[in-house]
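ok new one. same drill as before - C-alpha coordinates go in, u give me an amino acid for every spot. 250 of them this time. try not to just spam alanines like last time pls lmao
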Protein backbone atom coordinates (compact mmCIF):
# COMPACT_ATOMS: atom_id res chain seq x y z
CA UNK A 1 0.00 0.00 0.00
CA UNK A 2 1.35 3.41 -0.94
CA UNK A 3 2.02 6.12 1.61
CA UNK A 4 -0.73 8.27 0.06
CA UNK A 5 -3.36 5.56 0.44
CA UNK A 6 -2.16 4.78 3.95
CA UNK A 7 -2.56 8.48 4.83
CA UNK A 8 -6.07 8.51 3.31
CA UNK A 9 -7.16 5.57 5.45
CA UNK A 10 -5.58 7.08 8.56
CA UNK A 11 -7.38 10.41 8.01
CA UNK A 12 -10.70 8.69 7.35
CA UNK A 13 -10.48 6.40 10.39
CA UNK A 14 -9.37 9.11 12.83
CA UNK A 15 -11.56 11.87 11.43
CA UNK A 16 -8.54 14.21 11.46
CA UNK A 17 -6.44 15.41 8.58
CA UNK A 18 -3.61 16.29 10.99
CA UNK A 19 -2.68 13.25 13.07
CA UNK A 20 0.95 14.10 13.84
CA UNK A 21 3.45 16.91 13.47
CA UNK A 22 4.67 15.24 10.28
CA UNK A 23 1.33 16.02 8.63
CA UNK A 24 1.38 19.76 9.47
CA UNK A 25 3.56 20.93 12.34
CA UNK A 26 2.24 24.50 12.37
CA UNK A 27 -1.37 23.41 11.99
CA UNK A 28 -0.99 20.90 14.82
CA UNK A 29 0.49 23.52 17.18
CA UNK A 30 -2.20 26.10 16.42
CA UNK A 31 -5.05 23.61 16.69
CA UNK A 32 -3.81 22.32 20.06
CA UNK A 33 -3.71 25.87 21.43
CA UNK A 34 -7.26 26.42 20.17
CA UNK A 35 -8.36 23.14 21.76
CA UNK A 36 -6.90 24.18 25.13
CA UNK A 37 -8.65 27.55 24.93
CA UNK A 38 -11.96 25.89 24.12
CA UNK A 39 -11.57 23.49 27.05
CA UNK A 40 -10.80 26.47 29.29
CA UNK A 41 -14.03 28.21 28.26
CA UNK A 42 -16.00 24.99 28.82
CA UNK A 43 -14.60 24.65 32.36
CA UNK A 44 -15.36 28.34 32.88
CA UNK A 45 -19.02 27.62 32.05
CA UNK A 46 -19.09 24.81 34.64
CA UNK A 47 -17.48 27.04 37.27
CA UNK A 48 -19.90 29.89 36.57
CA UNK A 49 -22.84 27.48 36.86
CA UNK A 50 -21.50 26.31 40.24
CA UNK A 51 -21.27 29.96 41.27
CA UNK A 52 -24.92 30.43 40.33
CA UNK A 53 -25.77 27.40 42.44
CA UNK A 54 -24.07 29.08 45.39
CA UNK A 55 -26.05 32.28 44.80
CA UNK A 56 -29.32 30.36 44.52
CA UNK A 57 -28.69 28.70 47.89
CA UNK A 58 -27.92 32.07 49.49
CA UNK A 59 -30.94 33.73 47.88
CA UNK A 60 -33.31 31.04 49.14
CA UNK A 61 -31.95 31.44 52.66
CA UNK A 62 -32.30 35.21 52.52
CA UNK A 63 -35.93 34.88 51.43
CA UNK A 64 -36.66 32.81 54.52
CA UNK A 65 -34.81 35.35 56.65
CA UNK A 66 -36.84 38.19 55.13
CA UNK A 67 -40.07 36.38 56.04
CA UNK A 68 -38.90 36.00 59.64
CA UNK A 69 -37.97 39.68 59.87
CA UNK A 70 -41.35 40.67 58.43
CA UNK A 71 -43.07 38.67 61.17
CA UNK A 72 -40.85 40.28 63.81
CA UNK A 73 -41.87 43.68 62.45
CA UNK A 74 -45.55 42.75 62.71
CA UNK A 75 -45.05 41.73 66.33
CA UNK A 76 -43.05 44.89 66.96
CA UNK A 77 -45.87 47.02 65.61
CA UNK A 78 -48.37 45.23 67.82
CA UNK A 79 -46.12 45.70 70.83
CA UNK A 80 -45.75 49.39 70.01
CA UNK A 81 -49.37 49.74 71.13
CA UNK A 82 -48.25 48.59 74.55
CA UNK A 83 -51.00 50.43 76.40
CA UNK A 84 -53.52 47.71 75.58
CA UNK A 85 -51.21 44.73 76.28
CA UNK A 86 -50.24 43.25 79.58
CA UNK A 87 -46.66 42.32 80.47
CA UNK A 88 -47.53 38.67 80.01
CA UNK A 89 -48.85 39.34 76.50
CA UNK A 90 -45.72 41.31 75.60
CA UNK A 91 -43.63 38.45 76.96
CA UNK A 92 -45.50 36.03 74.71
CA UNK A 93 -44.80 38.27 71.73
CA UNK A 94 -41.14 38.40 72.70
CA UNK A 95 -41.04 34.60 73.02
CA UNK A 96 -42.11 34.30 69.38
CA UNK A 97 -39.61 36.99 68.39
CA UNK A 98 -36.83 35.11 70.18
CA UNK A 99 -37.71 31.94 68.26
CA UNK A 100 -37.66 33.88 64.99
CA UNK A 101 -34.29 35.37 65.92
CA UNK A 102 -32.95 31.88 66.61
CA UNK A 103 -34.18 30.86 63.17
CA UNK A 104 -32.35 33.80 61.62
CA UNK A 105 -29.20 32.80 63.51
CA UNK A 106 -29.52 29.23 62.26
CA UNK A 107 -29.90 30.44 58.68
CA UNK A 108 -26.85 32.70 58.96
CA UNK A 109 -24.69 30.03 60.58
CA UNK A 110 -25.81 26.95 58.65
CA UNK A 111 -26.40 28.09 55.08
CA UNK A 112 -23.59 26.29 53.28
CA UNK A 113 -22.45 25.12 49.88
CA UNK A 114 -20.02 22.22 49.81
CA UNK A 115 -19.08 22.96 53.42
CA UNK A 116 -18.54 26.69 52.84
CA UNK A 117 -20.62 29.04 55.01
CA UNK A 118 -22.23 31.74 52.91
CA UNK A 119 -24.04 34.16 55.23
CA UNK A 120 -22.17 34.41 58.52
CA UNK A 121 -19.37 36.71 57.38
CA UNK A 122 -16.68 34.01 57.46
CA UNK A 123 -16.26 34.41 53.69
CA UNK A 124 -16.35 37.89 52.19
CA UNK A 125 -15.65 36.82 48.61
CA UNK A 126 -15.39 33.71 46.48
CA UNK A 127 -13.12 33.51 43.45
CA UNK A 128 -14.51 31.82 40.34
CA UNK A 129 -12.28 30.77 37.44
CA UNK A 130 -14.63 31.66 34.61
CA UNK A 131 -12.15 32.11 31.75
CA UNK A 132 -9.24 30.09 30.30
CA UNK A 133 -6.63 32.06 32.24
CA UNK A 134 -7.97 30.72 35.54
CA UNK A 135 -9.51 33.95 36.86
CA UNK A 136 -12.50 36.00 35.91
CA UNK A 137 -15.10 36.58 38.62
CA UNK A 138 -15.04 37.62 42.26
CA UNK A 139 -18.34 36.75 43.92
CA UNK A 140 -19.31 38.81 46.95
CA UNK A 141 -20.98 37.10 49.90
CA UNK A 142 -22.90 38.76 52.74
CA UNK A 143 -23.03 38.80 56.53
CA UNK A 144 -26.57 38.64 57.90
CA UNK A 145 -26.02 37.56 61.50
CA UNK A 146 -28.23 39.17 64.13
CA UNK A 147 -25.30 41.34 65.20
CA UNK A 148 -24.67 42.55 61.67
CA UNK A 149 -28.39 43.21 61.16
CA UNK A 150 -28.43 45.16 64.43
CA UNK A 151 -31.29 43.27 66.08
CA UNK A 152 -29.48 40.90 68.47
CA UNK A 153 -30.95 42.76 71.46
CA UNK A 154 -34.36 43.60 69.97
CA UNK A 155 -36.86 43.11 72.80
CA UNK A 156 -40.45 44.36 72.85
CA UNK A 157 -40.68 43.96 76.64
CA UNK A 158 -38.19 46.80 76.92
CA UNK A 159 -37.64 50.06 75.11
CA UNK A 160 -37.24 49.30 71.40
CA UNK A 161 -37.25 51.03 68.02
CA UNK A 162 -39.14 49.46 65.12
CA UNK A 163 -36.69 51.20 62.78
CA UNK A 164 -34.09 48.62 63.84
CA UNK A 165 -36.18 45.96 62.10
CA UNK A 166 -36.70 48.23 59.09
CA UNK A 167 -32.93 48.63 58.78
CA UNK A 168 -32.47 44.87 59.06
CA UNK A 169 -35.03 44.33 56.30
CA UNK A 170 -33.19 46.85 54.12
CA UNK A 171 -29.91 44.99 54.64
CA UNK A 172 -31.47 41.67 53.65
CA UNK A 173 -33.16 43.26 50.63
CA UNK A 174 -29.85 44.84 49.61
CA UNK A 175 -28.14 41.45 49.94
CA UNK A 176 -30.80 39.87 47.72
CA UNK A 177 -30.35 42.61 45.13
CA UNK A 178 -26.59 42.05 45.13
CA UNK A 179 -27.08 38.32 44.64
CA UNK A 180 -29.51 38.94 41.78
CA UNK A 181 -27.07 41.28 40.03
CA UNK A 182 -24.23 38.79 40.43
CA UNK A 183 -26.43 35.99 39.11
CA UNK A 184 -27.19 38.06 36.01
CA UNK A 185 -23.50 38.77 35.52
CA UNK A 186 -22.72 35.06 35.72
CA UNK A 187 -25.47 34.33 33.20
CA UNK A 188 -23.81 36.71 30.73
CA UNK A 189 -20.44 35.10 31.45
CA UNK A 190 -21.88 31.66 30.73
CA UNK A 191 -23.39 32.86 27.46
CA UNK A 192 -20.13 34.54 26.40
CA UNK A 193 -18.09 31.43 27.23
CA UNK A 194 -20.48 29.20 25.31
CA UNK A 195 -20.23 31.46 22.25
CA UNK A 196 -16.43 31.55 22.49
CA UNK A 197 -16.29 27.75 22.87
CA UNK A 198 -18.52 27.27 19.82
CA UNK A 199 -16.40 29.57 17.65
CA UNK A 200 -13.17 27.94 18.80
CA UNK A 201 -14.63 24.51 18.07
CA UNK A 202 -15.37 25.70 14.53
CA UNK A 203 -11.81 27.02 14.16
CA UNK A 204 -10.38 23.73 15.48
CA UNK A 205 -12.60 21.75 13.13
CA UNK A 206 -11.50 23.73 10.08
CA UNK A 207 -7.85 23.06 10.94
CA UNK A 208 -8.02 19.43 12.03
CA UNK A 209 -11.16 17.67 10.83
CA UNK A 210 -11.07 15.52 7.73
CA UNK A 211 -13.24 16.58 4.80
CA UNK A 212 -14.73 13.12 4.25
CA UNK A 213 -15.91 13.74 0.68
CA UNK A 214 -12.56 15.23 -0.35
CA UNK A 215 -10.62 12.48 1.41
CA UNK A 216 -12.70 9.73 -0.25
CA UNK A 217 -12.13 11.36 -3.61
CA UNK A 218 -8.41 11.56 -2.95
CA UNK A 219 -8.38 7.92 -1.82
CA UNK A 220 -10.13 6.85 -5.02
CA UNK A 221 -7.63 8.81 -7.11
CA UNK A 222 -4.68 7.33 -5.23
CA UNK A 223 -6.08 3.82 -5.58
CA UNK A 224 -6.34 4.30 -9.35
CA UNK A 225 -2.79 5.65 -9.49
CA UNK A 226 -1.58 2.76 -7.38
CA UNK A 227 -3.30 0.28 -9.69
CA UNK A 228 -1.76 1.96 -12.74
CA UNK A 229 1.67 1.84 -11.07
CA UNK A 230 1.27 -1.84 -10.27
CA UNK A 231 0.10 -2.60 -13.80
CA UNK A 232 3.05 -0.72 -15.27
CA UNK A 233 5.43 -2.51 -12.92
CA UNK A 234 3.91 -5.85 -13.90
CA UNK A 235 4.17 -5.01 -17.60
CA UNK A 236 7.79 -3.94 -17.22
CA UNK A 237 8.59 -7.18 -15.44
CA UNK A 238 6.91 -9.15 -18.24
CA UNK A 239 8.92 -7.25 -20.84
CA UNK A 240 12.16 -7.93 -19.00
CA UNK A 241 11.26 -11.60 -18.72
CA UNK A 242 10.57 -11.72 -22.44
CA UNK A 243 13.94 -10.16 -23.19
CA UNK A 244 15.71 -12.78 -21.08
CA UNK A 245 13.93 -15.55 -22.97
CA UNK A 246 14.99 -14.06 -26.33
CA UNK A 247 18.61 -13.82 -25.16
CA UNK A 248 18.57 -17.43 -23.98
CA UNK A 249 17.21 -18.66 -27.34
CA UNK A 250 19.91 -16.81 -29.25
Amino acid sequence: MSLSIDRNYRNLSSGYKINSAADDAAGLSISEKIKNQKNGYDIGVENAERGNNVLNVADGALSSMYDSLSRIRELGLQASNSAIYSKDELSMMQAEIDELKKGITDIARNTQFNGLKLLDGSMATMELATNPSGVGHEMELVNVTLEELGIADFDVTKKFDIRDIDNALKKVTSAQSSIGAQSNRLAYTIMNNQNASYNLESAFSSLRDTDMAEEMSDLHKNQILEQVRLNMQKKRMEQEEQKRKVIQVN
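Residues 25-80 form the longest helix (56 residues). and btw The chain is about 70% helix and 5% strand.
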